[in-house]
Design goal:
It contains 21 helices and 23 strands. It is of the alpha/beta class. An 11-stranded mixed sheet has the order 1-8-2-3-7-4-6-5-9-10-11, sandwiched between helices. Bound molecules: threonylcarbamoyladenylate (TXA) and magnesium ion (MG).
Length: 528
């Protein structure tokens, strides 16, 4: 099909009459709106609407929004308009706000996707507004992209998706807003936000305080049949490039993307700090969001990151589009990794190396010592006054008693672990402002359940028993009996190994182990 291009920048342009003729004859023309370009046809003409579905490759059960020029037209297609809907219409029309209401029979099934409701919006853009008025039609218009692709916000986007598939395309200004209208359902005596947009939830709440945010706004819709807004169940806005949302504090996000050196969709405040390749989102990301998503494919980029927007104000709409573009892929920072193994195997050397690679390290032994004051009364109750010298905890004595039997070791863990875990979580929270990866260096991560609860991956270091024995004697100044007891206090190597995502054996020289640490860290970073 030959697609005619109509240049229209003002409402008094003569091309508007030509567009109206095509529409009145049941043709499809892509038009600008203030949100995104729409693929318009006579909403009450089933044959015309059918062409929209064909041009987009849109599933038949995904209904279209009917665009009208004034509030009067609403009465022709809506069976009833509840008071709450009327209040919102008065506040937000003309504008990027769509209401879902019970429909009159005049609206064909194909337009409403077989539902007994209709979505209606009165756009603010003067060109579509003038076309609706002059044609005397109501226009069904989904976004003018191929189904599943990012919505089009410029003439170029529309041309690339629709050339040859429809009768005409209006060549006009880029869309002012950049994301589709806010969609709100007024059915069943409730007011429910189905798709966030420029008219934010906060603004609607000023009028309707008990606005419900539908769970499908932020989450994947599990029961596909029950999707209130059928469009939310389809893969959406997705470029071919695999996009991942990174949820974390700004500095941590920047550290992470620079470390990974993968293309970033970067907002204005992030741009100057990002050394990884970047595509600009600019100051108001919604304006360039869909353009940026399309650029990823135009540039042949295979993988990209973007910071998860705060789900406030316009951020909710951005998040809603991005999480779909990302196929619900999101990484939460900081990534907490666990480093464990028997004592005396060189975990501290690995931790030091990890710091060189920019990981924050929490020394869990230190975190434990910090809370001994808090735990001292409980320790005395369990092990007696002998663990106290000069009013203070005598660590060596506690160690000797606590590690003397399996039962005592368990008793010690039962007292210390809950307080230690609390302290560790406090440290993680503090470090998460600036750090993308946090390494917990701790001998009892697995036994305490911290590994399972807090750590995404576990790194295990072990060494042969004799080597550990010798280290205890040299490092901690223990005699043979004490060193033997310390050795036995840790679980056997095999126990740790069975939990390892990454495993290192430290039987060699310092420099050999150093090389092993570096190799493992590079592998870990690649996998993050
Ligand atoms: O800003 C916009 O709304 C743009 C411009 C062109 O006006 N249009 C647009 O249409 O975004 P579309 O078809 O891409 O998205 C309409 C959304 C879909 O998720 C659809 O499932 C939902 O609105 N929708 C339409 N009618 C509905 C109904 N009766 N009940 C529930 N959801 C409905
Ligand atoms: Mg769409």
């Amino acid at each position: 099909m030959k697609t005619e291009i109509f240049k229209i920048y003002r409402r008094n342009n003569n091309n508007i009459n030509k567009v109206c003729e095509i529409l009145k004859n049941g043709g499809v023309v892509a038009l600008p709106t203030e949100t995104v370009y729409g693929l318009a046809a006579d909403a009450l003409n089933p044959e015309a609407v059918k062409k929209i579905f064909a041009a987009k490759g849109r599933p038949a059960d995904n209904p279209l929004i009917v665009h009208i020029a004034n509030k009067e037209q609403l009465k022709e297609i809506a069976l009833s308009v509840p008071e709450n809907a009327q209040k919102c219409i008065n506040a937000f029309w003309p504008g990027p706000f769509t209401v879902i209401l019970p429909k009159k029979d005049i609206v064909p099934d194909i337009t409403s996707g077989g539902l007994n409701t209709v979505a209606v919006r009165c756009p603010e853009n003067p060109i579509i507004n003038e076309i609706i008025k002059r044609s005397g039609l109501m226009l069904a218009a989904p976004s003018a992209n191929l189904s599943g692709s990012p919505s089009p916000t410029t003439f170029k986007h529309v041309l690339s998706d629709m050339n040859g598939r429809i009768e005409g395309i209006v060549n006009s200004y880029d869309c002012k807003i950049g994301v589709e209208s806010t969609v709100v359902s007024f059915l069943n005596n409730e007011v429910r936000l189905l798709r966030p947009g420029k008219i934010t939830a906060e603004r609607i709440k000023k009028i309707i305080p008990d606005l419900i945010i539908d769970s499908g706004v932020l989450q994947i819709i599990k029961d596909q049949k029950k999707a209130l807004s059928p469009g939310m169940k389809y893969k959406h806005y997705a470029p071919k490039c695999s996009v991942t949302l990174i949820n974390g504090k700004k500095q941590a996000f920047i550290k992470f993307v620079n470390r990974k050196n993968i293309t970033v969709l970067a907002e204005k405040t992030e741009q100057e700090y990002i050394t990884a390749p970047k595509i600009f989102l600019g100051e108001h990301p919604e304006h360039r969001l869909f353009t940026a998503l399309r650029e990823l494919d135009e540039k042949g980029i295979k993988k990209a990151y973007v910071k998860s927007p705060d789900k406030k104000g316009m951020g909710l709409a951005l998040y809603n589009r991005l999480i779909r573009a990302a196929g619900f892929n999101e990484i939460n920072l900081p990534l907490v990794l666990g480093l464990t193994g028997p004592s005396g195997v060189g975990k501290t050397s690995f931790a030091a190396k990890a710091k060189e690679f920019g990981f924050a390290v929490i020394d869990c032994d230190k975190a434990a010592r910090e809370v001994t004051d808090e735990a001292l009364p409980m320790l005395i109750k369990a092990f007696g006054e002998t663990i106290v010298s000069n009013g203070k905890l005598n660590r060596k004595k506690l160690g000797v008693i606590a590690f003397s039997t399996e039962e005592n070791t368990q008793k010690l863990n039962g007292i210390m672990l809950p307080v230690i875990v609390k302290n560790i979580n406090k440290k993680i929270k503090k470090l998460s402002v600036k750090n993308d990866v946090i390494l917990l260096d701790g001998a009892t991560l697995i036994e305490s359940g911290a590994a399972e609860k807090i750590c995404k991956k576990i790194i295990v270091v072990t060494a042969d028993e004799q080597i550990r024995f010798n280290r205890f004697k040299a490092r901690d100044n223990l005699n043979d009996i004490e060193a033997e007891a310390r050795k036995k206090a840790s679980k056997p190597n095999e126990f740790y190994k069975s939990y390892a995502d990454y495993y290192l054996l430290n039987n060699g020289s310092f420099s050999e182990f150093n090389t092993v640490c570096e190799k493992t860290l590079k592998e870990i970073i690649k996998d993050l």
